[in-house]
Structure formats: structure tokens, C-alpha cells
Inverse folding.
């Protein structure tokens, strides 16, 4: 009987307490990550439910939440549609607390027609197998296709030609704000205007 007790005591002494601390810390991290994932899923479900409820009820107080539904993008028409679409998506991402991969997944879900065909054809080149999906990489490729350098240059030229003319101050201010996003360097560094 004495031998058995000594054996147990020796087994405990031989075990490194630092290893126990590392294992406990890893278990706590795993539990925390699980709780965070559950909270994120609950937040997304809650935001989606609120948007759906607002859309069904047509309640004025809930109309703002219904706007959470970002628009679909088909890749046709006005080149300004691409940056507007990205801007709407980024607002939704912020409200929903999306991860990088979730941002790409939601964006791809909203692509239709020409834009969806483009994505199917280029997805493998943009994100080769085993590559992490990031919003920065997706949006860079998206802009390369749907908001070309020539379209950016046309908008910059339009900004540079902007004059109040017959517009009211409010109309001019709105047009300035709309076009200024295509000339961020000129806004940030006015000395570049020359």
C-alpha cells in the first residue's frame, strides 16, 4: 500500500506545473473564442431579424434598421455604382461586426449577373486554394474590374471642373461632397490643386 502512495506522489512531482498552466490557459482561450463566435452569430441574427421585422411592419421607427440590407450589384451601368455599393457594404459590415472572411462572403452573395459571372471566373486567381479571404484583396480586385482607372480619372476631372454656377450653395456642397471622394489626395493635400 505504501508503494502505491509513493507512486502517485512521484507521478505528481514529475508533472511540470507550467504544462498544467498552459493547458488551462488554452482551455480558457478556447472557451472565450467559442463565446465570441456565439455572440457574433447572435448579433448577426438579431440585426437580420430587426431588418426583416422593419421591412414586414413598415414601421417608420424601424425604417433605419431595414436599410441594413445592402443592395445587390450587377456590374452594369454607372461606374459610380461600384464605390457606392462598397460604401453601403462597409456600413453593414460595421453594424454586423463581420470578420474579413464574412465580408467577402456577404459581398459575393450580393453579386448578380455580370458581376457574379466575373467573380466565378476570377475567384480562383484572387483567392487561390489555401489563401485567406480578405476584404482588402477582394475590394482591390472588384475596383479593378468595376471602377477602372479611366473611370476614376473622369470623376477626378469632373471634380476639378466643378463650379457653383447656377447651383444653390446646398446643391454645390452636395456635388462637392459626392465628387470629393474621387479626389481624396486633393482634399487631404490642397497644395496638389496647382
Amino acid at each position: 500500500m505504501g508503494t502505491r502512495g509513493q507512486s502517485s506522489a512521484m507521478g505528481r512531482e514529475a508533472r511540470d506545473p507550467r504544462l498544467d498552466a498552459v493547458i488551462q490557459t488554452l482551455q480558457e482561450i478556447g472557451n472565450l473564442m467559442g463565446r465570441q463566435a456565439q455572440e457574433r452569430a447572435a448579433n448577426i441574427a438579431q440585426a437580420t431579424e430587426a431588418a426583416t421585422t422593419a421591412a414586414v411592419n413598415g414601421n417608420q421607427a424601424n425604417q433605419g434598421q431595414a436599410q441594413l440590407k445592402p443592395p445587390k450589384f450587377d456590374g452594369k451601368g454607372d461606374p459610380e455604382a461600384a464605390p457606392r455599393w462598397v460604401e453601403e457594404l462597409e456600413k453593414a459590415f460595421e453594424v454586423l461586426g463581420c470578420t474579413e472572411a464574412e465580408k467577402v462572403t456577404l459581398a459575393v452573395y450580393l453579386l448578380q449577373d455580370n458581376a457574379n459571372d466575373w467573380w466565378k471566373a476570377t475567384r480562383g486567381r484572387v483567392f487561390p486554394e489555401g489563401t485567406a479571404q480578405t476584404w482588402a484583396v477582394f475590394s482591390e480586385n472588384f475596383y479593378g474590374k468595376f471602377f477602372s482607372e479611366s473611370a476614376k480619372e473622369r470623376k477626378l476631372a469632373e471634380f476639378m471642373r466643378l463650379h457653383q454656377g447656377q447651383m444653390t450653395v446646398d446643391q454645390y456642397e452636395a456635388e462637392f461632397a459626392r465628387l470629393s471622394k474621387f479626389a481624396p489626395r486633393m482634399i487631404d493635400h490642397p497644395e496638389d490643386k496647382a
